[in-house]
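Support reply, case 0932

Customer input (verbatim):
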Amino acid sequence: MPFDLFTAIFQYVPGLVHSPSFTSHSHSHSQSHSQCSPLHGHWPAWPVLPTPDSHPQLRMVPSHSSSLAVPFPLYSSPSPHIATKPTYTAPASVIVPTQFKPNTKGQGLMQLISKEEVKRLGADGRSKLFNKSHPDCLRPGDVVLVETLNSMSTDKTSTFVGLVIAMDRRELHSNFTVRNVEMKVGVEMKYMLYSPLVKSVRIMKRGEGFRRAKLFYLRDNPGRAFRLEGLIKMDKAAQAKKVAKA
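Our regenerated output:
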């Protein structure tokens, strides 16, 4: 008996193989397949596939979780299974703009947002530290005292005194690196200029004799650059006097 493809495909559909229309199709197909071959010059006509209208068994398939039959569309039907696109209507209290076009003025949108953030976060005057045209700008080789918040939830602060060995000007991501030697161990701290954790940056002494923009060579040949104990003591005494006068 020749292999019947239709019987193999639909043998798991209940009642399909035993239906009169499908049996007649498969029987006629098996006879024509045995009598015809490619050597005769043509194949027999392929029988028409059963549809849900001719075979109601295709519309319902028993569910494994219950004894009730659940719909299982084996063939696409144009009307009952068309997905409708969901629509959203805003309430009257929400104002939906009909047209929104930011005024970029020849610059990218992200550049515009970055400049607005720099303007907002630099309102306390910290932007002048990276402005080369400002007299109080920060330069490599300066000794600074950086005061930072331990966390955003408390008012406790920490201070670090060191020499500025690198500066990176990148608008919102501008940062500077401060280095000092504590107990014969080199310590470096990298601060983001516009970070909300940076409370204040105060220049204690201007650098002298430095010509490079990156002072990384001081890691190997520090010399007298990191002998800041006397400067720190003098600064503490000056701050104590100011507090006493106030």
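We compared this against your earlier run and they match. Two observations from our side: The longest strand covers residues 157-168. Helices lie at 5-9, 20-35, 109-121, 229-245. Please reopen the case if you see a mismatch on your end.
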